[in-house]
Design brief:
Elements: E1 2-8, H1 14-29, E2 34-38, E3 42-43, H2 49-54, H3 59-62, E4 64-65, H4 66-73, E5 76-79, E6 82-86, E7 91-94, E8 97-98, E9 104-106, E10 109-118, E11 123-124, H5 132-135, H6 142-161, E12 166-172, H7 176-195, E13 203-209, H8 221-233, E14 237-239, E15 244-248, E16 251-254, E17 257-260, E18 263-266, E19 270-271, E20 289-290, E21 302-304, E22 309-310, E23 312-314, E24 320-322, H9 327-345, E25 361-365, E26 371-376, E27 383-387, H10 388-426
Parallel strand pairs: 1-2, 1-10, 2-5, 10-21, 12-13, 12-18, 13-14, 20-22
Antiparallel strand pairs: 3-4, 6-7, 7-10, 8-9, 11-19, 15-16, 16-17, 23-24, 25-26, 26-27
Helix pairs in contact: 1-9
This protein binds flavin-adenine dinucleotide.
């Protein structure tokens, strides 16, 4: 199988790129021009995984089928997990796929490409903490969030029928994922209490443990302070400057004592897949592909975007670093690559300007109708703080923008309305 453009990874960035390239090339020249490969048959926008984990977002409603998206957007889709790359032959190796009994359902395959974009995302960084990988849940993929949701459902039932009447959850890492998961779990608990008999009601104790001195360290002090206050007012025990030394099955071990827990979640940083280091491309210590300011890897026919790419960034204050692992960065890089690859395809001289990441600010959801965040005024250069319902609506609009990129305006409106109506009928919380 040979394709002009192969995109590996259909997440926040890869799927948007495949959709844009499909509409540009595939519609005119045929579906076989652009191929998207993903290890999962279903796309879910990763920033919603904490909602799936808390049972407040139904994965079967949220997940979009890649084959259907491919047909609509004029690209081809192949289900498969990339396990090797032959840069000399320009070939991608896909592992064989098994069912739950270990029987091979799809054999190993090889796909050749003219140009390739890697959009593989990232996983968790355990920083070598003993026990973290074994005992803590993570929110890396839809399957992780779904597994956690099932454990949460069982833990809710156990707490409701126990004599202790308490469920203890410890979350390691007070970045956006840890903060948003804490808020979403409080929502799920509040909804569960509304439908429970008095005798079943239980307390939810959430402890949010952070090694650094403040929550949401990547955001301005004011946002960090607001988010901490909002969580503490709702009963979350926030422990900053508390590095976790060990994770046990039923507790976190820290220098200031143990944090007992029935459920533990690790949300303390990202690291790309270890397998990236074996693909023959230059990677950094987080296994991210090193790319130049045109998102090109150490191989001239391969580009990388999103969380799996270490792209140079000159920050507004003049200091340098790499583009942060955020959905807005993956989105901007997909848009940039679409323009560059389309120009290349049209055999126009590709004197592409370098990719420049524009930080439009960050929004953090603190539950049903609350959010906090800052927006960067691109014209005035000033920083605007938003909070409450406005911040929450703006946060939700980011999700809609992603859907618009892959479904178009009409499809996005229909989907949003269908979800709203479904929630009205069957409720928001899905722990069964
Ligand atoms: C709970 C949570 C909340 C978040 N909230 C926000 C937020 O509010 N705002 C924000 O900007 N960012 C947020 N993020 C970060 C954001 O989700 C990521 O930065 C973004 O999804 C990165 O996009 P990507 O395209 O690089 O990778 P991903 O979206 O992770 O997609 C990677 C894709 O590659 C596929 N894949 C991986 N390996 C292989 C392989 N070997 N072969 C084939 N396919 C493969 C995966 O199946 C997946 O579909 C959040 C993340 C989490 C976990």
């Amino acid at each position: 199988m040979h394709y002009e453009l192969v995109i590996v990874g259909g997440g926040a960035g890869g799927l948007e790129l495949a959709s844009m390239m499909g509409r540009k090339l595939g519609r005119r020249l045929g579906h076989e021009k652009v191929l998207l490969i993903d290890g999962s048959p279903m796309h879910i926008w990763k920033p919603t995984l904490h909602e799936v984990a808390a049972g407040t977002l139904d994965i079967n409603q949220e997940g979009l089928s890649y084959p259907i998206l491919a047909r609509r957007n004029h690209f081809s889709f192949l289900l498969g997990r990339m396990v090797g790359l032959d840069t000399a032959q320009r070939q991608i190796m896909l592992a064989e796929m098994h069912d739950e009994h270990g029987t091979v359902i799809i054999p190993a395959r090889t796909v050749s490409y003219t140009r390739c974009v890697l959009a593989l995302g990232s996983g968790s960084n355990f920083f070598g903490t003993p026990g973290a990988e074994q005992h803590a849940a993570v929110l890396e993929r839809a399957e992780d969030a779904e597994r956690f949701r099932l454990h949460l459902g069982a833990a809710f039932a156990r707490a409701a029928y126990s004599s202790r009447k308490v469920l203890r959850v410890a979350i390691v890492g007070a970045g956006a994922t840890g903060v948003e998961l804490s808020a979403e779990l409080l929502e799920a608990h509040a909804e569960a209490l509304q439908i429970m008999a008095d005798s079943q009601r239980f307390r939810l104790d959430i402890t949010l443990v952070e090694a650094g001195p403040r929550v949401l360290a990547a955001l301005p002090d004011r946002i960090s302070a607001q988010a901490r206050l909002a969580l503490e007012q709702r009963g979350v025990n926030v422990k900053t400057s508390t590095p976790v030394a060990e994770v046990r099955a039923d507790a976190l071990v820290t220098a200031s004592g143990e944090v007992p827990a029935d459920l533990i979640v690790w949300a303390a940083g990202i690291k790309a897949a270890a397998g990236n280091a074996g693909l023959g491309l230059a990677v950094n210590r987080l296994n991210q592909f090193e790319v130049n300011d045109r998102l090109q890897t150490s191989d001239p026919h391969i580009w990388a975007l999103g969380d799996c790419a270490a792209c140079p960034w000159v920050k507004p204050d003049g200091s340098t670093g790499t583009v942060p692992a955020r959905a807005q960065a993956a989105h901007q890089q997909a848009t940039y690559l679409q323009r560059m690859l389309a120009a290349w395809q049209a055999q126009r001289p590709h004197a592409a300007p370098p990719f420049v990441y524009r930080d439009h600010g960050s929004l953090v959801s603190l539950g049903d109708n609350r959010g906090v965040g800052n927006l960067m005024g691109s014209l005035s250069g000033r920083n605007f703080f938003v909070e409450g319902l406005i911040a929450k609506w703006m946060y939700m609009s980011l999700h809609l923008m992603h859907h618009r990129a892959i479904l178009g305006v009409g499809g996005t409106i229909v989907l949003a309305l269908a979800r709203l109506l479904q929630q009205r009928v069957s409720g928001r919380l899905k722990l069964h």
